Amino acid sequence: MTTLSFVFILLVIVALYHHIGYLLILKIVTKFKKPTTKCTAIQTKLPSIGVMMCAYNEQSHIEEKLNNLGSLLYPSELYTIHVYLDGCKDKTYDLALQTQKRLEEKGVVCVLHNANENKGKAHAINALIEIGQNNYDILVFTDVSALLSIDALNKFANQFQNKDIAVATGCYTPDECSTQWQQSYWKYQNTLKTLESHFGAVIGVPGALFAIRASNVKPIPKHTINDDFILAMQACHSGGHVVLDADVTIYERECDEIAQDIKRRERIGAGNWQQFIMLASLLNPKLGWTAFNFFSHKALRAVMPIIIFLLYVIPTIALVINQSVWGACVCSVLLSIHTIGQVKSKNVLIKLFAKAHYALICYWVALRGVVKYQFGAYKKPWTRVNQRKGKDNSVSLIKRAFDVVGSLCGLLLLLPIMLLTALAIKINSKGPVLFKQLRVGKSTDKFVSLFYVYKFRSMVVDAEAKSGAVWASKNDPRITKVGSFLRKTRIDELPQLWNVLVGEMSLIGPRPERPVFYAKLEKSIPYFGWRTYGLKPGISGLAQVMNGYDESIEDARSKIGWDYAYALSMSNRKNWFAMEWMILLRTISVVFTGKGQ
Fold this sequence. Notes:
By secondary structure, this protein is an alpha/beta fold. Helix content is 50%, strand content 14%. An eight-stranded mixed sheet has the order 3-2-1-4-7-6-8-5, with helices on both faces.
């Protein structure tokens, strides 16, 4: 057994333990072990409760949420609703004010804390903690978009009779319009948390609703990402129990589309990594089941994106360097998962592939969150997922995953060809092997990126010294003999795989134009600059395989339709996938038939 295969098997075992083994262990142990916490009859004296809620641009849900809280069965004189409006720019405050008056008529106290500036959710939560910690026995934190069962507060009051309980939560139910993947995820999470509750050691609570004994509440750090998790785990740091009451129902009213859900996974991935660093002390064996559950559930969840990344890289390296059969098999399985997993079908096997595809994509997104966190991201005030601007949907995320894997495999597999090409260039003409040139990259509302594209040199040195910047043409005298072959087969583009790997380009996309031509083209061709709006330029693309190299403004004009056609395909995963493979096959055809210019 090679070192690579041994490490791969070890990582597979860790991944299987985290997703399947841990759940099985909990199921087996709960059959023989009595519950650590036991709910008793409701006490005579009910505790006072402060319902704490942060709101930022929640005009769609604020009225319904406040009416839901005002309808709870708990005695109205024993609970108060506190809403911290964190610099809302929509009608949230006005609607909350109107609902507040209606609640007062029913005897329900609702206090609005309106802030003019959005300082972030951590700041808002800490402000609510300062307001409520010394005034209530229990603090209940809930999201605006979640509705609660009318006896939720009664159930929590019952749970907190046990002095060992620090945190309590309920069963989270996603909206009916949510994707089947979200529903499967929360079904798994509810099962897992119910088993963990048997030991009084639920790891993580849904931010939609959880209650904390006021004496156990601690302020959270300024740039906390997963505030619900940090709040709950800080509360049980001294040994307090965290339980789930199956009779408390949390119904999520907000329905994320797949793109929004994927975006949320990125932030959750960063949050998992942050909380692993912040709460590493929970791994202390003295904490018993809390330490075991934290390691198996959240610690492994935090590092799982890195493990998944290695499960892609290791077999790829084994295939390229060692030509191993097992590496080829694993790469084939991964490719099959991401290909078949995008097909919509009621077939059980295809559904299984689809779930695996979704889970793996989520981990790739989480890895991006981890990397962004390490580079200082996630320090800005909170915003709603569906209000964020920019092209960041599931297609772009899958596309980036393909770019990383494809460019890495390409650099490794094509290394011999690239070395021979470098040698041929050196023999054929004087000058450097590589040629770099400034190009225009992805554009957004705020900026247009510039980067240096790398190619194998196909022209003589200082080809534009006398003529200035001009388009290449057929039978261009500046092109060397070797360069002519490189351009026909597109081998001169291979160094751009590095541009793809570092995120400046994509394998497939619009052609990256030179700034000196870009200004002319933008004046001559309407909406030319929109070709790369939210889209990275590519080594190959629909316009490139249909039209070849540009020789004039007219050539560029005829290409723009193809670029827009490709951009439109990205609005639908199925259409994009079909388009991507078609361009890939045409690119291969150009390389082997020498139809490039």
